[in-house]
Fold this protein.
Amino acid sequence: MTQKTPLILLPGLLTDGALWRHQTETLSDIAEIKVSDLTQDDQLGPMARRVLAGAPETFALAGLSMGGYLALEIMRQAPDRVLRLALLDTSPLPDSAEQTARRRSLIDLARTGDFKGVTQRLLPLLIHPDRIRDAVLTRAVMEMAGRVGRDAFIRQQTAIMNRPDSRHDLGLIHCPTLVLCGRQDGLTPLAIHIDMAAALPNAALVAVEDCGHLSPLEQPHAISAVLRYWLAMEGAPRRDA
């Protein structure tokens, strides 16, 4: 019987295990999967230590957006424990002044009692423009945000605003690495992923068509197929988008 790979999945801002539902269901034959709870800490360092404390000795690691920022922090703290890495719809860049200002505005909105308004403002940035009227998809996003809640949202935004510049760390990551992006991702555009894959020593780059920022939710079959290949491959051949 083939041994399953331990796989830790890291959600993004205002998302939880539902983001990865298709992957946890369809990859369970080859992976022992755990979706981490990223709601407790307001800095990436403690967040990474919490994930590592509950992780197997070695594991595969995949993170989306904020989960990708955290995955890079885990690589700084414990690179020898990560067998392979997947960075989905994320960025190695620190927050820009404009991004930080937008986050502070959303935090203020949440603190004044209009937490539902936060997700409504974010929704056009999170999914492909053609899916804004997709009631099933938008409801899933709103429900995840509701489960995460206002206080955890503020902690997560604080951690994101204070994340370091990870570009200089990319060259130190030598495990097989998947860099994946929805081609229509409006928050972390494909160009960022092209540069990130070029800086990683052992990376494969994949662009998913007709897809925005929440790729595992928007194109679940495609993402599960790519992650299956990533989990099985011995190396990561470089590939153009």
In short: The first helix runs from residue 21 to 26. The mean pLDDT is 93. The longest strand covers residues 82-88. The chain has nine helices and six strands.
